[in-house]
Amino acid sequence: MLTQKPLEGDPATAPARPAARPAADVVCWFEGDWVPLADAKVGVMTHAFMYGTAVFEGIRGYWNEDQGQLFLLKLREHYERIADSAKVLLMDHGETVDSLMDRTLELVRRNGYREDIYIRTTIYKSTESIGVRLHNVDCRVNILGVPFGDYIETGGIRCGTVSWRRTSDTSIPSRAKVVGSYVNPAMAKSEAVLNGFDEAIVLTQAGKVAEGSAENLFLVRRGQLVTPGVDNDILEGITRAGILELAERELGMRAVQRAVDRTELYLAEEIFLCGTGAQIVPVTSVDHRTVGTGGIGTVTSRVMAAYFDIARGRAPDYAHWVTPVY
Prior knowledge:
The protein is of the alpha+beta class. The protein is 25% helix and 29% strand.
């Protein structure tokens, strides 16, 4: 088990990163070859550009200065999920989980990153044609990596429920990371921010809590760690699955997956959002109602500490979560 200690290892305490490199100095995997990022371009008639027919994964890498090592978090799990997403969109792209993992490791080594990074892998319908369909369209793969810090402030955010509803499995499957489906969270995010909040909480068509704009959601209530179930149109989050793994072993808590009402958010002792991009984000208020004491709760703090220790390769018991690059 992880040793309880003060929160550390988060991006706020990471060493300052150097200035961003010009795109011409960054190498990416694009349509079957290693090319400068500045040259990785698609035509305006590309099917994915015109219709959103692409799937993607975002993968984080965490630099450990003491070990001189960069760790990619949940690399295999991300590529297993993109394989599932591609299957949903009838994509025959010619890659395997192992080949995508190998290309990603080579990508990072070619660029020599020694800082926190974000890798974006996209499988997309590459045929240049007009016509809404999934069949009889070619597919290609792009993998790029860039230095990356916080996507959302990790010190505590204010959330608001929004009028937009989460797309259902009968519309655009939530368990597939389809590029075109991200119009839905974009609408939710902008509504929340323009209404004075930091982040959105999105409900299902039935009015149950689904997730944030692009993050899974957990709450603490009456000694239980609760998260909406996969039947509530959520993304089957990789970080979410990791937290469920940590719950009993590290927190000594029962984790419950079930439907969550909006008003339960108002009564929760703690709430946090999670995801690869977001990491672990404490929620301090929902719809102008203070969550708990209005600060970062004990459970959330422990989850954050465990997460960043594991991500930076400091937790030998969780070595299966990370893949060393060098």
